[in-house]
Design a protein that fits this description.
Blueprint lengths: L10 H15 L4 E6 L5 E3 L2 H8 L4 E7 L2 E6 L3 E6 L5 E5 L4 E3 L2 H4 L1 H7 L2 E3 L15 E7 L4 E5 L6 E6 L3 H4 L14 H8 L6 H6 L9 H10 L13 H20 L40 E5 L2 E5 L8 H5 L1
Parallel strand pairs: 2-11
Antiparallel strand pairs: 1-9, 3-4, 4-5, 5-11, 6-10, 7-8, 9-10, 12-13
Helix pairs in contact: 1-9, 8-9
The protein binds a DNA duplex through helix 8.
DNA sequence: ATTTAGACCTGTCAGC
DNA sequence: TGCTGACAGGTCTAAA
């Protein structure tokens, strides 16, 4: 099954899902879609979405930043943004969808959605994720592709493929593509008075970085998260660029999960701990200098850094 | 022009 | 056990 664990999606997590989906559903046809939380469908209007998508063949799966893209027959594409808790589950054929809760307990239905029952012969108990199904794609071969999302922040859109450029007009370069050069990154920092943390979270600067990998990239580059973006020297820009590429690549190599067995780039081979160096590591010693990692709040986001390795805040004031 | 609070949502966990 | 408040990896919008 795809997506059994709840993994919060940044670029590596979305990339991992895209790869799994690619091998599992490319070539399949969507017979019908059921929507249980209407706001999840952000474009076009729900009725049009439902009629347009029925009968389409899934021709390919791609990723753009944190967006998952399904190319559909008829020159359409689905754009899915998982936000905080959105996820995909692929159920084998012969499961049953049970929507009786809708009548029997309307209040519970508002948060819970339908139940899915395995074939009688199956003893497997599938994850409770199924109870947060917001959209159910029924495939022609009987499988169900579920979009689950407890917090209901995720958004799904359907567009003609010719509009792709316009849809992503405000999205920055793909950090793991040739488009993300040091020069282009440097250009994006020119005149930017905001702190580095906010800058990395800005999807127009680079696509796909979220709170975890922003903290990790800054740690890699030994740069203070509040350092002004336009104060970096050329060599600092190069190191930060390298840090972005490195932490995202490592994230993908580790199966898109931030917590996994890991032998690292900065230090010892941990036994079976996660490969994040600072994210949620407050109070633990820095792997480079042993100083305790700190947590601060920047732009209402928790931010983790090593106050010794990343102490270069001074230049933020002087330049 | 930027920064920031508020909104969108539900679950979990610590502390009383 | 039950309650309360803080917090969660994202992004848009309106107000300061």
């Amino acid at each position: 099954m795809i997506g059994d664990e709840r993994i919060m999606p940044e670029l590596p997590e979305v990339e991992y899902t895209a790869r799994q989906l690619r091998s599992a559903v490319v070539g399949s046809t969507i017979r019908e879609v059921q929507v249980f939380w209407e706001r999840t469908i952000a474009h076009p209007q729900l009725s049009e979405f439902l009629t347009e998508i029925a009968g389409r063949r899934i021709e390919g799966v791609r990723r753009r930043g944190k967006f998952l893209l399904l190319d559909l027959s008829g020159d359409l594409f689905l754009s899915i943004h998982r936000r905080m808790t959105g996820n995909f589950l692929l159920l084998p054929a012969d499961w049953e969808i049970d929507t009786r809760l809708r009548e029997s307990d309307p209040l519970a239905w508002k948060t819970r959605g339908p139940e899915f029952h395995p074939p009688a012969a199956t003893a497997v108990s599938y994850s409770r994720e199924t109870s947060y199904c917001r959209v159910c794609f029924e495939l022609a071969d009987g499988r169900y592709l579920l979009f689950t999302d407890p917090r209901k922040f995720g958004r799904i859109e359907l567009w003609p493929r010719v509009q792709e450029e316009a849809v992503f007009a405000n999205l920055g370069p793909e950090p793991l593509s040739d488009a993300f050069t040091v020069e282009r990154f440097a250009q994006a920092l020119v005149g930017r008075r905001t702190g580095l943390k906010q800058t990395l979270l800005d999807q127009e600067v680079v696509a796909g970085i979220g709170n975890i990998y922003a903290d990790e990239a800054l740690y890699y580059a030994c740069l203070h998260p509040a350092r002004r973006a336009d104060s970096l020297t050329p060599s600092e820009i190069r190191i930060l660029h390298d840090g972005i590429v490195t932490v995202l690549t490592l994230g993908i190599e580790h199966g898109g999960t931030s917590f996994n067995d890991y032998r690292d780039l900065w230090g010892e081979a941990g036994q079976n701990y996660n490969h994040v160096r600072v994210y949620r590591q407050e109070g633990k010693p820095c792997g480079r200098c042993n100083t305790l990692i700190e947590r601060i709040v920047i732009a209402q986001r928790s931010t983790h850094f090593c106050p010794h390795c990343q102490r270069t805040l001074v230049s933020a004031i002087t330049s």
